[in-house]
Amino acid sequence: MRKRQIIIDCDPGLDDAVALLIAFAASDRLDLIGITTVAGNVPGKLTYLNARIIRELAGGGRDVPVCAGAPVPLMRDPVTAEDFHGSTGLGGIDFPKPEIRGSRTHAVNFLIRTLRATKGFPATLIVTGPMTNVALALTMAPDIARGVKEIVVMGGADREGGNITPHAEFNVFADPHAAQIVFQSGIDMRVLNLDVTHQIRMSDDQVERVRALGSKQALAAADLLAASNKLEEKAKARHAPLHDPSTLLSLLRPDLFEGRKATVTVVTEPGERFGKTVPTFTEDGHVLWYDKADADSVFSEMLGQLGRYGE
User: 153 pLDDT band (50/70/90 cuts)?
Assistant: First the structure.
């Protein structure tokens, strides 16, 4: 069976980094054909650097290009999240500098060129940061939609409320105009929003189970997860949700998640609801809005994937 082709558009970020490690570990099922980065959790120069750090740690090498993308949102002032990811985006963990350079191709140009080439075998876009790159690509080249099988997004919230404002989740809040373009594209989407990711939290014991796998990649994942917990506990007195890794895990094990079909709009008008996602549940919706997860099984799947590094 042919592997599913994926492109990860991300803003590493502690949990983005764990998601990347899972993607490389699952190479028997997923063909990671590119990583594009965007400003979000930290400024664009750092997200680009961090993606290259994790690619090298995972053993991805030059075969998986890393392309830097939009340094600012479409219309709003930039917003970052160093409070939750540390000043470097990777929790201050001392990773070696990458030796392998990134691509000189801009992320948006990479998306357009690559998705035009995948029309016969559409690729899956996994988006774990603000949707600026994807919105720009769809606006510049609407025909690339035919090269997209689906878009799997970490973003948004409904019943849980927001994590950056009372109404808005960070990735959407960071560029709500881009999110509106992507949600309104009509492309099939799965949305790992706060309604579901807040159900999946890493205990300290689970972090140590990841660490016990022993490979350098698993040790790095444990450090990243522990840093997430430390920063989340400092800010909100609770363990960190498994936000971005859930995108990969829902792709590998969709049976562990439940959701409802919907259409989604984003509040782009200034005010207290700015950046809020508004799902309207309807059987013919093109968006699968996840709202339930088997948290223990999701963790077991992540543990199994990260355990592949030791094989």
Answer: very high
Are the C-beta atoms of residues 306 and 22 closer than 8 Å to each other?
Answer: yes
The rounded distance, in Å, linking the Cα atoms of 11 and 29 is 24
pLDDT recorded at residue 237:
61
**Is 243 designated active site?**
yes
Q: What one-letter code names the amino acid at 130?
A: P
Q: Are 42 and 92 in contact (CB under 8 A)?
A: no
Q: Which fold has domain 4-310?
A: Inosine-uridine Nucleoside N-ribohydrolase; Chain A (3.90.245)
Q: What is the pLDDT of residues 246-297, one digit of tens each?
A: 999 999 999 999 999 999 999 999 999 999 999 999 999 999 999 999 999 9
Neighbours of 304 (CB within 10 A): 14
Cis peptide before 13 (omega within 30 of 0): yes
Residues 6 or more apart from 171 whose CB is under 8 A from it?
A: 11, 40, 128, 129, 130, 131, 153, 154, 155, 156, 179
Residue of 167, 198, 239, 243 with catalytic role: 243
Q: Quick count: other Cβ atoms within 10 Å of Cβ 15?
A: 27
User: What's residue 86's pLDDT?
Assistant: 77
